[in-house]
Amino acid sequence: xxxxxxxxxxxxxxxxxxxxxxxxxxxxxxxxxxxxxxxxxxxxxxxxxxxxxxxxxxxxxxxxxxxxxxxxxxxxxxxxxxxxxxxxxxxxxxxxxxxxxxxxxxxxxxxxxxxxxxxxxxxxxxxxxxxxxxxxxxxxxxxxxxxxxxxxxxxxxxxxxxxxxxxxxxxxxxxxxxxxxxxxxxxxxxxxxxxxxxxxxxxxxxxxxxxxxxxxxxxxxxxxxxxxxxxxxxxxxxxxxxxxxxxxxxxxxxxxxxxxxxxxxxxxxxxxxxxxxxxxxxxxxxxxxxxxxxxxxxxxxxxxxxxxxxxxxxxxxxxxxxxxxxxxxxxxxxxxxxxxxxxxxxxxxxxxxxxxxxxxxxxxxxxx
Length: 368
What we know:
Blueprint (H helix, E strand, L loop, with lengths): L2 E7 L6 H12 L3 E7 L4 H8 L4 E4 L4 H13 L5 E4 L2 H10 L5 E6 L10 H14 L2 E4 L2 H10 L5 E3 L23 E5 L8 H13 L5 E5 L7 H13 L6 E5 L4 H6 L3 E4 L9 H8 L3 E5 L3 H5 L7 E3 L4 H12 L3 H15 L4 H23 L1
Parallel strand pairs: 1-2, 1-4, 2-3, 4-5, 5-6, 6-7, 8-9, 8-11, 9-10, 11-12, 12-13
Helix pairs in contact: 3-4, 4-5, 7-12, 10-13
């Protein structure tokens, strides 16, 4: 008998959490899945049209949506409910009753440096108080959950990043030293794309012939920041060396055209799907040494780490990679592909389902 799971999400914007959920649903053939969403959009419509999941869109204003959610949850007492985002989990916690089996999928660092103090407080005193258990997308995220609720049953499960088993099979050849850098991700201040632009400007000033591709777009009202990045490239005199692509749907072809990924989050990255994607493609990854990236990368073995938020350290680390011998970069690239195999989608999906079933059955037994 299939396990019945209902995911609750507040948005249809294709951010990391939403894309990871879509990958899970598409790959989890042994569960019965539906999505309840506060916002309609192509991501959820595509899932429903492909028969991967039933999608229920809550209509009206927020209060009406919460009433509709509460009624829907009461009609589905045999299902395990999972909040797919901080806000979605908060709404779920408000709507559920004591007979509900619910889990919070923590995809954010639950600390004031990563979100507002109000958000941390609401998550601690409402969401984590009412849910039955928690899924965390990294050991780092799990620690922040346990700091707020030490006794909550929490399991670490890594997000599906779009990695198939054969994506790591092809060795990347470094016949010459790398010159093509890429920043891939949402254009938000905390993601640090401005650090990537500044680092490239510093490297060019030092005589390195490099280019930077910035791939990604603003998702949550961050268009002004996007504009400021282009202005920054002009101001630093590197506009001809920095290309802005906007959102890129097909990531692998983009990665295959580059040598080095710059991952520049200025606060701890909860996990780092982009890092796993780049490692699977054999790129040299340079990432901040906190959060999920520190769990994924062994510094100097399968990638490079630098002090979070430190432009000088980022520039020096990238320069070291650019000046590395091709044979050393080849070894690092091969080790990166080997590490990425641990995060292939099939493996992640199996572990997620297993954790959901274990946590859900445990709570169901207690309720009954």
